[in-house]
Design a protein that fits this description.
Helix content is 25%, strand content 37%. The protein has 4 helices and 8 strands, in the order αββαββββββαα.
Length: 142
Amino acid sequence: MTNEPAQELTTTRIWDQISRVPAEHLKSFKRGGGFSGTAIKPMWTIHRMTEAFGPCGIGWGMTEPTFQVVPAGNEILVFCTVGAWVKENGDKSATVFGVGGDKVAAARSSGIFADDEAFKKAFTDALTNALKHFGAGADIHM
């Protein structure tokens, strides 16, 4: 028997490791209707996941995204669902899911605006929403 204290394993170890976002990786945003908030730069989240688990596709990763295109009046919306997983102790853990969305075609006072990056934005939104389940950026989302 040793006199060393037992190393405590906590159920929030991963969460605690990836939850705090430095101010330089945050940006403010405003949406219609007066809604505003703070967004986390997506590459920070990907970087933190890589620091914590290793390269994407090896220590952590995502499932193939699925997209749903939805007509909404004179606009067109796209929604993406993607799963995210991590490896702990060499085993792939359960998959958690996130959903994101954007407008492919948005009505503006000047007419309809088509966004050729809407699918990418919806995917990024879905992935970062999934990674919140592991604690990525939790201090902002709480």
